[in-house]
Every structure is written in C-alpha cells, then in structure tokens.
C-alpha cells in the first residue's frame, strides 16, 4: 500500500470470527515470519483495523492514525524524511485458536507534498535580462553536482577543476556572459575585421552589450492545439443561426452527415461530409470483399435551427444489374457467395433560406456476388422549397464557383442538354472514357486516346474525331444564370461554333499521314460579375465560343513496324474569361495627353525632372531647396563662363 488507508474483503460468514492486526511479523534477526497468533488486537502501533460485517462478505479496512506532513524545525508527530513509513503488517482472521485467513500488507508511504506551514516572503528575484544577464554560468546544468568542463560551476572543487581546466567551455555558455563584441573599439579581435575598423567603431561600456537578451525573454502563450472533435455551431444560450453555403451538415449526435465522395487522389472516401447547397454525383468502385455500409439512414439531421428531422427513406430493388456490375470473374456456381448491398443512394434535401426543411432518400438494393466489381452511385441534390416543375430558383440566381454549367437544346422536344469533358479510366482510351460536367469558374483540361489504323481514311478519321468531340457538347445554348428557365429564350446565350480551318495540304496518297485533324476542342466561356446578393457575387455568363485546333497526324512506327495501330490523343480544354460587366468609358483626348505626364502611369516622369526643386520633394523646406537650387545654378553658370576661351583671354589682359 502507498496511502494511509487500504481495503480488503473477507469472504464467508464472519459470525464468531476474530480479526487482529500484527505489526512487523518478520523476525529482524532471523528474517523469518513469526508464528501467527490469534490473540492479537485491532490496533498495532499507529495502525487501526476496522471490520464492517455483511451477509457473506465483510469489509476489512487498515488505516494509519497519524499525520503525514514533513517535519518543521522543532516539531514532533511528523515525518522526518520524504519516505515517511516503511512497515510490514499482517491481518489475521481466526475462529477461536484456529486461523481461517491471513493478509500480508507491505506499506511504503511518502509524506504529503502539500505545505501548510508559514511561507517565507523572501522571494527569489529574477533579473530582467534585457539589462543584466539572467545566469552568470549557463553551463551549470546539474544542481548539487559538478558539471564537467564548466569552470564557472561553484560546485566544482579545485581538484575536479584540474581534470578539465584545459578544456573549459568558452563564450557565453562557459560563463563569459559579457564578452567584448567585435564592434567595440577596444576589441583586439582580428578575425573578420572589416576594412573600416577602427575608423567606425562603438565606444561603449560592457554593461551595454548585444549579448543581453541572448536567452530570449518574451511573452509566452498557450499553444492552440487543434481538436479532433467537430466544432459545434451551437453554444449554450445562443440559438443555431442556420447553414451558409459550404458549411458541413451536422447530425443529431454533433457529427458530420457524410456521403462517399472522391478524394484528390481519385479514391472514394466514405466519411466525407456533405456541404450545404453543394450538389454531388459520385461513382465509386467496390467489391464484396471491400464493401462497407455507410451512414445509417435513421440518423436525424440538424435543420439549422437546433431542430432535428428524420430522413424519409424509400427502398427499391435493382432489376438490371448490368448497369452497375463492371467486371465479373468466372467462378463456379457452388462457390459464389452473394450478399444484398446498396447499389445507389439518391439524396434530395429541400431547403429554405438557411435551413433544411426535408430530407428524402432513395436507396437501390441489389445482390453483389464474390468476384464482381460494383460501381456504386451517390447523388446529393439540393432543391429549394419554392421550386416548381423541377426548376430551382436560387436566392442568388447567378453562378457559384464549382457548380455545373447549365446547357439546353432550345429547339428540341427535350430541352435538357449537357456540357461535358472527358474523365478517362483504365488505359485512357476514348472507347472507355466517361464524362463529367463542366464546372463554373474551373478551368479544365482533359483528353483521351483514339486508336487509329495505318490504313485509316483521312476523311473518315476527321469525321470520327469530330464526332467524339461533338459528343461532349449536347446543347445549342448555355444558361446565363443558374436558374435560367427553359421557356424564356432571353435566359440563354447561343453557343458560337467556329469550324476547323483547312490548310489544303495534300499528302500525295501516302498512308499513315492525315493533315487538318481537329484533335483539340477549345471551349471559352466569358462571364461577368453583375452584382451581389447578401454579399455573394452574382456571376452571369455572357458568351460561349467553341473552336477547334488541327494537328497533323502521322503513324508512329514501333519496333520493326509490326504494329498496324497507332494512337491519336484528342483533348478538350475549358477556359473561363472574366470581363467587366459594362464596357469602360472611352478615354478622351485630354486624358490621353495628360497620361503622358502622369507619373503614376509612366516610367518616365517629366514633371519630376528637377525633383529637388519641385513640390514633390518633401525632405526639406521648399525655401531651402530653392536656395540650394539657385546656388547650384550659379555654380554651373560660373563654371561655364570660366571654361570659355574668351574668358581666359579677358583674364590675361
């Protein structure tokens, strides 16, 4: 035991059982245990024994009946040293003269560290090291002992100092806390002495030395260690103020509402939080071995006003598994293990202002077997409570960075269009590449590889490449705003298409060479900031242009020219160009002339040719500058006169 009290239990009926306590049961001469004697009492020295009987268990308590404070001068009944008590105790349980049980206790108790005596008011004064060195012997690191090679350590005896007197620490660390510095005029150091020394030096006392403050003495502050807990958006007594765009959605357990999303490395992360008003459409590959369930659908969502709503979940069964199963290994039917898993989850969150009004979830379930690769799909769509006919009139009608650009086929029966770029997979071939939408404000560059035969007809190759590129743009118009209505033609801008330019280069019937292949698609989107809604910029698209860049394709012959297939990379780039919302005011002729003399717009400033004599110079009063300028002009004039030949002739006469 290490404290003044210890508890134990006696199991069994304690009726008629006598408990006793023996101090130091070991014989000091022989070192053997003393023969147990049942005739002892419940007190031994400063120790007491208390027994609390019970039905089948009795509590046995051994306690020390004295103080554990360190002794003050001329004090008794205290601990003379920090290790206060080291004793061995033995507790016996006897019925008559028969010993039923015994307990051996080894006590090693230290004195209390708390001090309750009178505190001396002679406090140690730490000097301000900005004026006086904090320590006269910095190498004295060990208290009560001699530090080797520390010749300023007063705890080192002369005999010990003789052992290392020739290798003592030098400099500030060795105790020379006020050494003469190099800039001092009396310094005799010749190392790294500049050429101007001692013409320019410092004459100062050693009490004012640059080594003061060598050990930094500054204000300290508690470091703010980042917490791994989610910062709650609520505080006691303060209501929840609602979500803002981009804020993570919180659940009832003060955790993130998560949906699997792709990371920057391209892998799917299962615990990625859903951001408010940010739509998602993610596809993740998984197998039966690596499949993991996501967030349970019975978790309630924080609406934004410290209220919680339940998710409305609808379960459906997948009938066509071919749209989700991308690979399948050939296994015997008896060995196949299948499990019912989630194929897709579609979340629709109805919002109003800064709050979430409703959460609807559609879960598609299907059977996934061992050896199959499943392409899971997760979508999150935010719909305004005011939306009608599937259209969503946002509070801010302009585009926000990172949201898909809206496209439409105005003259078609189905006006829904798309503006995409490639998202290659696998070997990067165009045949297996998928699409991803063009995001507003995000310049993108993607491509894929097209396999071309050596006998490919050039006209057919141009048509094939053009078809691949045109498949990215299934639209005739682009929405000016994020809430452009299909029924209003003024909400859309027509896509300007520039056909590829032909150079009329003839190949002379050679195989494997085709000029003017439109291999690069350039999408330029011009937009402007036309205002702000609640401090958020309102951005509108003004024009969209599509052009093609042509290349000369030539068959690349491999080793031995045995391969009849070559590769043609085709690319698509998206560039967003910001322009002023209104054209700038034309510059007048006066402004053009004045701009030539504007020192803020030109590298050459003619008005400041005689800078010290102008009003631009503020280093001295203008009257002094003018007087110095006139004196300088007089000296120049005098030099010009005296250097003239006729002046020397006149002077000689």
Automatic annotation (TrEMBL):
Keywords: Cilium biogenesis/degradation, Glycoprotein, Signal. GO terms for cellular component: MKS complex. It holds the Pfam family TCTN_DUF1619. The keyword Isomerase does not apply. GO terms for biological process: cilium assembly; protein localization to ciliary transition zone; smoothened signaling pathway. Residues 112-221 form the Tectonic-1-3 N-terminal domain. It comes from the Eukaryota. InterPro entries: TCTN1-3, TCTN1-3_dom, TCTN1-3_N. Residues 241-384, 398-579 form the Tectonic-1-3 domain. Belongs to the tectonic family. Part of the tectonic-like complex (also named B9 complex). This is TECT2 protein. The lineage of its organism: Eukaryota, Metazoa, Chordata, Craniata, Vertebrata. The gene is Tctn2.
């Amino acid at each position: 035991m290490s404290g003044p009290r210890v508890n134990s239990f006696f199991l069994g009926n304690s009726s008629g059982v006598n408990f006793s306590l023996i101090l130091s049961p070991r014989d000091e001469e022989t070192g053997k245990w003393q023969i147990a004697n049942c005739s002892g009492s419940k007190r031994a020295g400063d120790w007491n024994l208390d027994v609390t009987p019970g039905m089948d268990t009795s509590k046995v308590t051994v306690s020390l009946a004295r103080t554990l404070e360190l002794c003050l001068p001329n004090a008794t009944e205290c601990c003379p040293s920090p290790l206060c008590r080291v004793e061995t105790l033995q507790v016996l349980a006897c019925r008559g003269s028969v010993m039923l049980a015994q307990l051996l206790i080894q006590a090693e108790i230290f004195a209390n560290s708390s001090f309750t005596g009178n505190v001396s008011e002679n406090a140690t004064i730490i000097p301000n090291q900005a004026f006086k060195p904090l320590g006269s012997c910095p190498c004295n690191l060990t208290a009560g002992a001699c530090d080797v090679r520390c010749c300023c350590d007063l705890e080192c005896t002369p005999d010990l100092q003789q052992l290392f007197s020739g290798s003592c620490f030098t400099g500030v660390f060795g105790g020379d806390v006020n050494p003469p510095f190099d800039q001092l005029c009396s310094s005799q150091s010749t190392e790294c002495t500049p050429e101007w020394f001692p013409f320019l030096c410092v004459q100062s006392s050693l009490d004012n030395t640059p080594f003061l403050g060598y050990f930094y003495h500054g204000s300290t502050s508690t470091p703010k260690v980042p917490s791994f807990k989610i910062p709650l958006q609520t505080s006691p007594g303060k209501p929840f103020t609602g979500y803002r765009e981009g804020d993570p959605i919180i659940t009832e357990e003060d955790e993130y509402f998560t949906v699997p999303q792709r990371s920057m490395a391209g892998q799917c992360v299962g615990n990625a939080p859903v951001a408010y008003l940010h739509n998602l459409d993610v596809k993740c590959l998984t197998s039966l071995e690596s499949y993991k369930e996501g967030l349970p659908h019975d978790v309630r969502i924080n609406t934004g006003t410290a209220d919680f709503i339940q998710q409305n979940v609808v379960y459906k069964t997948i009938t066509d598994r071919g749209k989700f199963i991308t690979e399948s290994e050939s296994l015997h039917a008896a060995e196949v293990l299948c499990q019912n898993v989630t194929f897709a989850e579609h979340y629709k969150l109805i919002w109003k202002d800064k709050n979430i009004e409703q959460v609807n979830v559609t879960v598609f379930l299907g059977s996934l077997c061992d050896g199959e690769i499943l392409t899971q799909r997760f979508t999150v769509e935010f719909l305004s409570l005011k939306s009608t006919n599937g259209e969503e009139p946002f509070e801010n009608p302009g585009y926000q960075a990172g949201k898909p650009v809206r496209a439409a086929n105005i003259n078609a029966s189905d006006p829904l269009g798309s503006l995409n770029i490639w998202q290659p997979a696998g070997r990067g071939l165009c045949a297996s590449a998928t699409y991803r939408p063009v995001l507003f404000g995000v310049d993108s560059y993607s491509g894929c590889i097209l396999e071309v035969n050596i006998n490919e007809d050039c006209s057919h190759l141009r048509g094939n490449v053009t078809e691949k590129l045109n498949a990215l743009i299934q639209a005739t118009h682009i929405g000016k705003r994020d809430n452009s209505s299909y029924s209003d033609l003024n909400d859309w801008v027509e896509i300007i298409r520039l056909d590829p330019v032909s150079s009329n280069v003839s190949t002379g019937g050679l195989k494997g060479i085709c000029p003017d292949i439109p291999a690069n698609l350039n999408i330029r989107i011009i937009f402007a900031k036309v205002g702000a809604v609640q401090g958020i910029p309102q951005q509108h698209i003004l024009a969209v242009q599509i052009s093609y860049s042509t290349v000369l394709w030539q068959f690349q012959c491999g080793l031995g020219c045995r391969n009849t297939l070559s590769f043609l990379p085709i690319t698509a780039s998206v560039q967003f160009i910001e322009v002023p919302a209104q054209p700038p005011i034309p510059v007048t002729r006066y402004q053009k002339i004045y701009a030539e003399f504007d020192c803020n717009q030109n590298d050459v400033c003619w008005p400041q040719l005689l800078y010290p004599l102008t009003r631009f110079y503020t280093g001295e009063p203008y009257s002094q500058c003018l007087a110095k300028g006139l004196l300088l002009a007089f000296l120049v004039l005098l030099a010009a006169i005296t250097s003239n030949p006729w002046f020397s002739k006149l002077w000689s006469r």
